[in-house]
Automatic annotation (TrEMBL):
The keyword Lipid metabolism does not apply. InterPro entries: CB, DNA_brk_join_enz, Integrase-like_cat_sf, Integrase_catalytic, Integrase_recombinase_N, Tyrosine_recombinase_XerCD. One of its GO terms (cellular component) is cytoplasm. Its main location: cytoplasm. Residues 178-409 form the Tyr recombinase domain. It comes from Paraburkholderia steynii. This is Site-specific recombinase XerD. Residues 43-155 form the Core-binding (CB) domain.
Length: 416
């Protein structure tokens, strides 16, 4: 259906650069609340969305996820329907849900659509688009959950009269067969073999190899989320003596929901940390309160073939890699391992397809699954990964830290 207004917004643009004509800004949306006292000073839809997002400003990952979904819906409403977000109906929301599975026209909505999509551009880049391809069923469900939170809050704040998504009944469905989001040991070995085969002819190639090996060690042995790998520092490693007098290393991780947990730094993990740091020309072990990020960018002189300047770190402040950059590194490794599998013939195509779908979070699931397979107590697995409980309703069970470290060290190995 063509837009019903003469739009100024001809192409999707990020929220911070969006200019909406008065006829579409929502100040007179058909779903605007008319009775009662509004608790928001927002006069239009964009201001209302910004007020909602401001609640998550101190949680960058949540903020980025929520902004993405609100931004996509607002742009779709303006560009595709030619109506304000505050005029959307239940039927519109159902149409949007179908749109997420196939954003068309692709040139309008998908970055690098002509090249198969997938590439991200900075928000200030003219090539920026709100999508990188069709959303999976799981991603669509997550998007609708977030939008339901948005609409519910706007109703509660007295900005909207009703929630157009509230009419959707979320029934519990029987589990359908789906790909398990973890790497079974054989497939995990393929990934490690690919990393071991990475080229190391130039300084930059060697720096990239060592960084990849350390990143995968950290994500797998530590069970870290990708945001945790980017948001914590080497100074958070510390050593303490256990009840038997054994010195054990730990990593304090500041994670999801501002929670803090202690991750056992096993002998393998500390060996790989020392290997990575020494390659970078640093001391083998970190100092207390050291601000060096867990994973470092490759310096501009890393392409040099001399050993002296092969891996100089960018800037004196040890600038960390972004979550997106870490995610790209992991995805590139999975894609490379998948390519090697495909070279072996059609019999390996299904395993290659699975690897191409993998992400950094699969390493976290793999770590948990492999620990459980190796008979690590599930309570220890829970504490290592920072889960609140064994199930959403179970009571928290205290586990002795020394035993947790010992079992993790003995039974959870990467075996490069």
């Amino acid at each position: 259906m063509p837009p019903s207004h003469n739009l100024v917004v001809l192409h999707p643009a990020p929220l911070e650069r969006l200019v909406i004509p008065a006829a579409l800004d929502g100040h007179a949306g058909t779903n605007r609340a008319t009775a009662g006292h509004a608790q928001l000073a927002a006069a239009n839809d964009l201001e209302a969305i910004r007020a909602w997002l401001a609640r998550f400003a101190d949680k960058q990952t949540t903020f980025d996820s929520y902004r993405k979904e609100a931004e996509r819906l607002l742009l779709w409403s303006l560009v595709q329907l030619g109506k304000p977000l505050s005029s959307l109906t239940h039927e519109d929301c159902l149409r949007y849900q179908r749109f997420l599975a196939d954003p068309q026209p692709a040139a309008t909505w998908i970055a690098n659509a002509g090249e198969g999509g997938g590439r991200k551009h900075p928000r200030g880049d003219a090539r920026w688009r709100p999508f990188h391809g069709p959303l999976s069923p799981a991603s669509i469900r997550q998007a609708m959950v977030i939008l339901n939170v948005l609409f519910s809050w706007l109703v509660q704040a007295g900005y909207l009269a009703g929630n157009p998504l509230a009419l959707s009944r979320q029934r519990t469905r029987k589990a359908t067969p789906r790909i398990t989001r973890y790497l079974e040991p054989g497939l995990w070995q393929e990934v490690k073999d690919f990393i071991a085969s990475m080229p190391q002819e130039t300084g930059r190639e060697r720096a990239h190899y060592h960084r990849v090996r350390w990143l995968f060690t950290l994500l797998y042995l530590g069970g870290l989320r990708i945001a945790e790998a980017g948001g914590n520092t080497m100074g958070q490693f510390f050593v303490r003596r256990d009840a038997d007098g054994t010195m054990r290393w730990w990593l304090t991780v500041h994670g999801k929901g501002d929670r803090e947990r202690l991750v056992p730094a096993t002998r393998e993990l500390m060996t790989e940390l020392s290997r990575y740091r020494q390659f970078l020309g640093m001391t083998a072990l970190p100092s207390p309160n050291e601000t060096t990020p867990l994973v470092l960018p490759i310096g501009s002189t890393a392409g040099s073939t001399t050993e002296a300047d092969r891996t100089k770190i960018e800037g004196p402040s040890h600038r960390p890699l972004t979550r997106a950059a870490l995610h790209t590194i992991v995805k590139d490794v999975f894609a490379g391992a998948a390519g090697r599998l495909r070279e072996r013939g059609e019999a390996f195509a299904a395993r290659a397809d699975l690897l191409e779908q993998a992400s950094a979070h699969w390493l976290r699931h793999s770590a948990g699954s492999h620990m459980a397979d190796n008979q690590v107590d599930l309570r220890l697995v829970r504490d290592n990964l920072g889960h609140a409980s064994l199930t959403t309703t179970s009571l928290y069970l205290h586990v002795d830290d020394d035993r947790r470290h010992h079992e993790t060290d003995e039974k959870h190995r990467i075996n490069w």
